[in-house]
Amino acid sequence: MSFAIGQRWLSHADSELGLGIIVELDGRRVSVHFPAVEEERTYATENAPLTRVKLREGDVLHTRDGRKLQVLAIHEEQELLIYEVAGEGQRELLAELDMDDHIDLATPRQRLLASQYDSHAAFALRMATAQHIHRLQQSGLRGLLGTRTALLPHQLYVANEVGKRHAPRVLLADEVGLGKTIEAGMILHRQLLSGDSRRVLIMVPESLQFQWLVEMRRRFNLNFALFDESRLSESDDGGNPFEDEQLVLCSTSLFLDANARALALDAEWDMLIVDEVHRLAWSQVEVSEDFRFLQDMAEQVPGLLLLTATPEQVGQEAHFARLALLDPERFHDFTAFEEEESQYKRWSSLMDALDRGEDVQGLPSDIDPEAPSERQIAALLDRYGTGRVLFRNARASVGGFPTREMLPHPLPMVENPVYQNLYPDLHVDTELWLQEDPRVAWLVSQLKSLRPQKVLVICATADTALALESYLQLRAGIRSAAFHEQLSLVERDRAAAYFAEQEQGAQALICSEIGGEGRNFQFAQHLILFDLPEHPDQLEQRIGRLDRIGQRDRIFIHVPYIEGSAQETLMRWYHEGIDLFRSSCSAGDMILNQFRSALDEQLRQQNDRFDELLQETARFTTDTRKELSEGRDKLLERSSCNTEQGLSLGEAIGEIEDPERLGSFLEQLCDVTGVEHEEHSKNSSVLRRGEQELLEIFPEVPEDGCTVTVSRDQALQREDWIFLGWEHPWMENAMSTVLGSALGQASVGAMSLKGVPGGSRLYELLFTVSLSAPRALGLQRYLPLAPQRILLDANGRDLSKLLTHERLNERVEKIPRGTVSKVVRQLREEIETRIDDAEQHFASELESRQALAAESYSEQLDEEIARLSSLRKVNPSIRHEEIENLKLRKEAGLAALSTARATLQGVRLVITR
Question: Taking every annotated instance into account, which residue ranges of this chain make up the domain Helicase ATP-binding (predicted)?
Answer without folding.
Answer: 161-329
